[in-house]
Amino acid sequence: MQGLSKENVESLIKAGFNRHQNNELDDAENLYREALKLDTNNAEAYNLMGVLKLQKQEPELAVDYILKAISIEPQEYFYETLFQAYMRCGDYKGIIAYENTVKTLYSKNFALLFDLALAFKTEHRNSEALKYYEKALHINPMSYDGWSNVANIYSMEGRANDAVSAMNVCYQLRPKDDDTAFFMAKDYFKANRYDKGFPLFESRSSKKIAFISQSKTMPNKIREDNFWHGENIKDKNIYVYYEAGYGDAIMYSRYLPLLAKKCKKLTFMCHRELTPLYKINEHLGVDELVDTFIPDHELDIDIHASLLSLPYLLKLKGDDIFAFREGYIVPDMKMVEEYKEKYFNTDKIKVGIKWRGNTTFDKDRVIPTELFNQLISVPNTQYYSFQTFEGSDEVRKLNNITDIGKDLIDFSQTASALRNLDLVICNDTSLAHLAGAMRIPCWIMLPYDVDWRWGTDLTKCNWYESVKLFRQKSIGDWQSVFDQVLEEMKPEH
């Protein structure tokens, strides 16, 4: 290339870079293209085009340009851009393909090690991910994202105490961050260290959302200055309101009788779908049950609390945290008989199943419906679908099954139908909590990444006496769970 052309190329790249910095992306792209016409082997121009394409939300083109730059003149920061482009494409295998390059040439580059670790983590190769996170954290031990990802892997692998240690570093780095406190609380819970987890669990966003929704309707009664903090309330009227989903509400309802003994009056706001069930269960100690927002002047309360805060506010310790694990919910017995006559008049072993809950937050718990056919084929069994709403149309994938879910409107009906079963087999969903709360045998099929409430010792269930837990052998491997269940169903068991 002639000297003048070289100067022209450098001038074009510089002008393009200035436009690039000013976010004049189209002008910058035109200048980079002009430079590449003059010098088709200019690695810097190709890399800058890759960066620009990332900003233009064209990651596939970015990859092409950066690979061209690397083929001409490999530079460390070219690989950093390449890894970002691969991430934006969702191509984590593309990053993993450069593992040896990173190990050999750039083993001191935090960004490359971190991205490589994240790629392995996303591909469910946790041991390799941990190895590279450890290398990255050796270079930058103050990386919050590094430690939080390490904690997540430890938790997934059942190393709850190690997860706590990693999250403790995160907490030191961000001591006022509510999300950090919340995730640390869940790791404490998983490690069965509830005394440490309860105070941190109060940082959860669902509690704040529940408070805001209540206070907007009843600002004179639901205020920050009349939260209950666990003090003596024998002469007080307390208002407890739900947060989160149906399963959490059922699980934490066990604490209502304990609270009722400590207060003058207990008013409980529950999900509308749970109201008929709670009306039957008067022994829970609720004096007034509401399922819709009511005006301030109609609410006779002194203090208020969120349902999920009760074990903390009641100062429960040890096994008392798992109060009434033998069961605390009963059905409408008249309705039980009605369902028996309609659906359950058989001598076969009656098994209820469900394969999906709320997929807004956790798709890992969804079980492929057709896998249940191998259970349905077990002799002397009759299966019933308790799947309602989302996913209920998939019952068509199952053979010889009775669809009771289409007739279930609320949890009182569900409880009455459940009472007729010999066994429930389902994913981690509200049906499992209801069965456990009713002391009905229930086998919960868990993903590899187990929710905090089930702990790490899956040979027992702390919360429900009648529940057994079955976990995936590897991430996404539902067949391994069905193999375990089929083994458990053999006559010798």
Name a few traits of the molecule:
10 strands, globular, 6-stranded parallel sheet, 493 residues, 3 domains, Rossmann fold, alpha/beta, Serine Threonine Protein Phosphatase 5, Tetratricopeptide repeat
Tell me the number of strands: 10
Distance between the termini: 81 Å
Radius of gyration: 29 Å
Tell me about the largest β-sheet: 6 strands, parallel
Number of domains: 3
CATH class of the largest domain, named Mainly Alpha
Under the CATH scheme, the architecture of the largest domain is: Alpha Horseshoe
Which term fits the overall shape?
globular
Helix content: 40-55%
The structure class reads alpha/beta
Let me know the average pLDDT. 94
According to CATH, the homologous superfamily of the largest domain is: Tetratricopeptide repeat domain
